[in-house]
Amino acid sequence: MPITFNVISRKNPLAPNEPPKFYADIVGNGQTTFEDLAKYASTVSTVSKADILAVLESTFSKIADDVADGKIVYVGDYFTLQAGGSSEGKETAEEVNASCITSLKTIFRPGKLIKQAMKLAEVRKKD
User: Fold this and answer.
1) Structural domain count of the chain
2) In angstroms, rounded to a whole number, what is the distance separating the alpha carbons of residues 109 and 81?
């Protein structure tokens, strides 16, 4: 199934008097759940869906804990996750402390297998 997009118009906020330009906006098309992953894995292996769900749940729970502990988590050739964030700027290094952090986020970096899949992905305009 291809990646689909809609066409949207956007004005340039730096030049509000110029006409808008049109852009492709990638849209989601369905979803894949833990259940779906487990069902698929059980069809291509001898492991039951229930066992696969247990492994997935414990694996992703460990990934979440490790990212929250500040570790960089490498998931094979698929992706890497790590913590990132933003903070307030201070005049001196001594003024910087944990209360300066304004937000935390998760940084996702695709690995070579996901990058390769994206290179091969088909894209089409949504009907």
Assistant:
1) 1
2) 6
